[in-house]
Amino acid sequence: MQRSITYLPVKSKDDVTHLRVDVYYSQGGYNLSTYQEEQRGYYLSVSPVSRSKLGDANTERYLAFSGRKRLLLPVNRKSPKRYETALQLAQESRQKLIDIVCQEQELELME
């Protein structure tokens, strides 16, 4: 599966411990949560999450609709070359999306 996930620690607030930054491929289609049609392609998402360790397992909790996502690259089908292009585009626009989520959720990244 083509997916890149990074966790950025934040100053803890209301059980939020990290921002999850994710680059992934989506087949698109009708989104039942937003009632909108979504394009097929590569997306960048940033979501506040709470990460913890439970025995040998890592757990992750999130609050629905608390993050943001952005279409990076519309495609007809996924491919390794398009994925690499999407990763480059994500590097260019990830900080802006991180800043938006931090402002909306009143979060501050750890140094």
What is the end-to-end distance? 31 Å
Dominant shape: globular
Q: Overall pLDDT, averaged? A: 91
Radius of gyration: 15 Å
Structural class per helix/strand content? alpha+beta
Quick one: how many beta strands? 7
Write up this protein:
- This protein is of the alpha+beta class.
- It has one helix at 80-105; strands at 3-13, 16-26, 29-31, 36-38, 41-54, 57-62, 68-74.
- The strands form two sheets. Strands 1, 2, 5, 6 and 7 form a five-stranded antiparallel sheet that branches.
- The longest helix is centred in the last third of the chain and has 26 residues, at 80-105.
- 15% of the residues are buried.
Write the layout of secondary structure elements.
Elements: E1 3-13, E2 16-26, E3 29-31, E4 36-38, E5 41-54, E6 57-62, E7 68-74, H1 80-105
Antiparallel strand pairs: 1-2, 2-5, 3-4, 5-6, 5-7
Considering the chains and any ligands shown, give keywords for the structure.
five-stranded antiparallel beta sheet; 7 strands; 111 residues; two-stranded antiparallel ribbon; 1 helix; alpha+beta; globular
Question: Brief description of this entry?
Answer:
The chain has 111 residues and is α+β, with helices and mostly antiparallel strands.
